[in-house]
Amino acid sequence: MGKKVSGEMLERLQAINDELEFYMALFRLPESNPDAEDCSEYLLDDNADEPVSFPTYGPNKPADTAEELEARVEVMKNKIMAKHLARQNKHTTDSSKSERKKLKKEQMMKKKMMRISLISAKQEQKRNKLIEHKPLVLKKEKKPAPTFNAEGKIVFSKFQLDEHDKPKKGVETDKKKLLKKVIDNKKHLNELKESGDLEKYAELKKKQAWDSAMAKTVGQKVRDNAELLVKKIKERKKQIKKSKEQWKERKAKVEQQKDNRQKKRSDNIKERAKQKKNNKLKKMAKKGRIIPGF
Fold this sequence. Notes:
Elements: H1 2-26, H2 66-133, E1 147-148, E2 154-155, H3 175-195, H4 198-218, H5 226-287
Antiparallel strand pairs: 1-2
């Protein structure tokens, strides 16, 4: 019973000691000052008001001479330095002890991971065995039933458009149509100006300016410059003409290559037939047949 109690007390003291060391390391409190050689702070003050009573026996007995006092001070210094060195040694051993603990933890973690991996491998094997023994039953997918519209016709798409629904027109990109539109607009504005209806002319021009500005803010390209449109149309015509010429050249080149390959093939066939005939005649000449030229 006594051993058990002493063991528990030792564990508690070690826990308290570890906690104190943790706080000392946290607040960086030095254990001692190794540079201090003066031990006057450990000695009693000579100018103390209260009289100090010293025992008349034992190691605390007052010194008889100055030499004995110096010897005692030297002994005290040695004891203090020894304690300091012991603390330093303890600190170094503690660091090595923490390293050993760290290594031990890592080893324990490795063993634990190995154990977990072995258990998972065994479970995987069992699962695979179960899967092998039990054949998989594939569920038959149900085909969706056909949908019918109001008229009783089958609908093949998800969205059934109404007859009155018209697809929205996109932005016009044909340069010729855009140019025609710009010319017609200019013609219409000129007619309004010449007729004297300046109010309607100004209103229409303002509306068109606002429409183009709003389209630009949205990020849409406004193609209302007749000169640029004419330039683009000419460039497109040049591109078409160039591509036609390139296509003609490519076509002629392909035909030429085709004729060359066909000619080469026919020449090779004739050459093989001729060689085959010559080989036959050589064999016949070797057998004793009289063949001119062999």
